[in-house]
TrEMBL record, chain A:
It is found in: Cytoplasm, Cytoskeleton. Functions as component of the Arp2/3 complex which is involved in regulation of actin polymerization and together with an activating nucleation-promoting factor (NPF) mediates the formation of branched actin networks. Arp2/3 complex plays a critical role in the control of cell morphogenesis via the modulation of cell polarity development. This is Actin-related protein 2/3 complex subunit 5. GO terms for cellular component: Arp2/3 protein complex.
Automatic annotation (TrEMBL), chain B:
SMART domains: WD40 (SM00320). It comes from Bimuria novae-zelandiae CBS 107.79. This is Actin-related protein 2/3 complex subunit. GO terms for biological process: Arp2/3 complex-mediated actin nucleation. It is found in: Cytoplasm, Cytoskeleton, Actin patch. GO terms for cellular component: actin cortical patch; Arp2/3 protein complex. The keyword Nuclease does not apply. WD repeats lie at residues 50-82. PROSITE patterns: WD_REPEATS_2, WD_REPEATS_REGION.
Length: 186, 363
């Protein structure tokens, strides 16, 4: 007993009233688990629509079935699908498509999902380009070189930024707040 | 529509405000004290200062009939202030909580009040004649996080509570010896203390800022940090509700809401202006802002004379002064309350916010 260090005892584990002792997942909305294969087959169907020229249908289909219950891999697959759709739509068509989705039943929900993917896409393109382009210098600060390499990410980013602008025009800042608040991540 | 009556009291955030029933007295939580204002003509002048809390006061409520003021603070205490000829006399309330108190509301019966707290429980406080002090009974289950808002049902037994765990709950706060046995309602028939009559979560599980029962008590509305407002219509005890309607708005989240009639809710928050929402069991929608911005814009443009324009250019390097919001409140609205009622309808509401203003609106 003498060797027991009192300060390292996890007192939360001993207190039945402690918030550490209950399952936090009961507080979040229930999501149904989804396998990566299911996400992939959905991605296949959506691509088919896209190839048929129905980009709005493809976008709507992708936004109505967000794989909240999938693992990281499945979520990446769906993100890639949505980014592909977003890049295939011309700038002039963005606003009409968004307002049509917004006025459809469940439209605000779909646009919230789109906002989640726009932010996730932004996080990913910047993450990928920084890890590729920034090399720590001996001087202690990082320097970005190979500007040309950064342009690839920059182009994806500019597409996402113009989508973001158009989306906020229609769904308002409430949409951004919902994405930040939502416990169901994509 | 009459223009809003604006009272700019000071340059501090107002956490909560409350008017007395005759609307002559206004109590406002300012930092560690509660300022009591008295109406003099068209203005409210500072009459008294209730000091006693050592930390920020988070809630204040004046009982409409007895005139007693209850305050609660982050110092984990609550006081009941009684008006006496010598001034306000405080009585400490035994809350027995180990975290900050966040909000407080008198029950309509005025024999008890509920305090929200960060200790994951709700002390329901009532007066013990024998010992001559206010004691509390704790509602504990199934609260999993800080309580941010409490609201009473008109029967003074049911209590709605909003929490940062994303749930709005309807609980029984029945205290033997204080309350009469309540009439059975759609929320429940037998209601011993701490009965959970309903637990509601919206889609995103954003935390709850405000809850309120409709005037009849047969519907519950709550606003959450995901910019939604949800209205729940219960069907029968122990059964799923008849309708749960969630409205996703385009504006920033609402901090406070009040029912004006059974089919209209006024909600306000981070957008610095109050909005009207209308609907019934079949659906709710945002009907628009309480402020009419049209005439105000015209006035603004008239003031921009050539002289003024050049003066602005000279002083600030720009022609338009864009440091002012075109809403009456210049910052987040924290609390809105019913100010005047007529035949069961709220005709005027009051709002207070981070900008130190209290505004009375005619609906």
């Amino acid at each position: 007993m003498a060797t027991l260090n009192w300060r390292t005892i996890n007192i939360d584990a001993l207190d039945p009233e402690s918030p550490a002792n209950f399952d936090l997942s009961t507080l979040t909305p229930a999501v149904t688990p989804l396998s990566t294969a299911d996400v992939q087959s959905l991605a296949g169907q959506i691509r088919q629509l896209l190839r048929g020229g129905d980009s709005q249908g493809a976008l709507q289909g992708a936004l109505e079935n967000p794989p909240y219950g999938a693992d990281e891999k499945g979520k990446e697959v769906h993100l890639a699908t949505i980014i592909e759709i977003l890049q295939s739509i011309r700038q002039a068509d963005m606003s009409p498509i968004l307002s049509q989705i917004y006025s459809a039943p469940g439209g605000t929900e779909a646009l919230d999902v789109l906002m989640k993917y726009i932010y996730k896409g932004m996080a990913q393109t910047s993450g990928a380009s920084t890890s590729r382009n920034i090399t720590p210098q001996a001087t202690g600060f990082s320097q970005i070189h190979a500007r040309g390499g950064g342009e690839g990410g920059g182009q994806a980013m500019s597409v996402l930024l113009s989508w973001h602008e158009k989306l906020v025009e229609i769904a308002g800042p409430g949409c951004i707040v919902r994405v930040m608040t939502d416990r169901r991540t994509v | 529509m009459a223009p809003p009556e604006v009272h700019h009291l000071f340059h501090h955030p107002i956490a909560d405000h409350s008017f007395s029933a005759d609307r002559q007295t206004l109590a406002v939580a300012r930092e560690n004290v509660v300022d009591v204002f008295r109406r003099a003509g068209a203005k409210y002048t500072l009459q008294d200062e209730l000091t006693g809390h050592d930390k920020t006061v988070t809630g204040v409520d004046i009982a409409p009939n007895s005139g007693k003021i209850v305050t609660c603070s982050q110092d984990r205490n609550a006081y009941v202030w009684e008006p006496t000829p010598e001034g306000w006399k405080p009585t400490l309330v035994l809350l027995r909580i180990n975290r900050a108190a966040t909000c407080v509301r008198w029950a309509p019966s005025e024999t008890k009040f509920a305090v929200g707290s960060g200790a994951r429980l709700i002390p329901v406080c009532y007066f013990e004649e024998e010992d001559n002090w206010w004691v509390s009974k704790h509602i504990k289950k199934p609260i999993r996080s800080t309580i941010t808002a409490v609201a009473w049902h008109p029967n003074s037994v049911l209590l709605a509570a909003g929490s940062t765990d994303g749930h709005a709950r309807v609980l029984s706060a029945f205290i033997k010896g204080v309350d009469a046995r309540p009439e059975p309602s759609a929320w429940g028939e037998r209601l011993p203390f701490n009965t959970v009559c309903g637990e509601f979560l919206n889609n995103t599980a954003g935390w709850i800022h405000s809850v309120a029962f409709s005037p009849s008590g047969n519907a519950l509305a709550f606003a959450a940090h995901d910019s939604t407002l949800t209205v729940v219509y219960p069907s029968a005890p122990e059964e799923p509700p008849r309708a749960v309607l969630s409205i996703s708005t385009q504006v920033l989240p609402f901090m406070s809401l009040v029912w004006s009639t059974e089919s209209e809710i006024i909600a306000a928050g981070y957008n610095c202006e109050a909005y009207r929402l209308q609907g019934d069991e079949n659906g709710w929608q945002l009907a628009g802002s309480l402020e009419s911005k049209g005439p105000k814009g015209v006035q603004d443009s008239r003031e921009e004379s050539a002289l003024n324009m050049f003066r602005q250019m000279d002083l600030k390097g720009n022609t338009k002064d864009d440091t002012k919001l075109n809403t009456v409140h210049q910052n987040t609205i924290n609390t809105i309350r019913s100010f005047e009622e007529e035949g069961g309808h709220v005709t005027k509401i009051s709002s207070s916010g981070v900008d130190g203003r209290v505004v009375v609106w005619t609906l």
